[in-house]
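**User:** My hope is that you can spare some time for a protein that puzzles me. As I understand it, each token names a local backbone shape. I would be glad if you read both lines and explained how they fit together. The protein I mean follows directly.
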Amino acid sequence: MTTIQAPRTPAVTRRRGVNWEKWGWIYMRASGVLLVVLIFGHLFVNLWVGDGIKAIDFAFVGGKLSDPFWKVWDTLLLWLALIHGANGMRTLVNDYATKRLTNGILKWALLLATVILIVLGTLVIYTFDPCPAGADPSLVASFCPVAN
């Protein structure tokens, strides 16, 4: 005789511990909302304020990255976008990479690429110096004291 489970019995028993899929889902929604604000703020300042796109040059970027507010803004944008994208790619890997080994390799490659890009991007944001000491005056921007 076959036994049929009660209609409200879960098909899969819940494991104990942190539900990473739930937190990944929540992260995607929260970071998506925050990214919309960050991206449109970034586009507004870069494209519409002042002279618009004609004003974007080395001096504009150097001035922007010398302001702590914009460093934090760009860091948030970088981190949230990369982690948001990596989490989306992880979902695709889970959906389409059915072999356990392939799935693991792709997820590790995704993690490695994300960590490398976050580290390099953060280093650029916080170590950018538009006026490096000892640089050839003909190569630095006109607003640097070396160029004068």
Notes: Residues 26-127 form a domain with the 3 helical TM bundles of succinate and fumarate reductases fold (CATH 1.20.1300.10). Helices lie at 20-48, 58-64, 68-96, 100-127. The radius of gyration is 23 Å. The chain is about 65% helix and 0% strand.
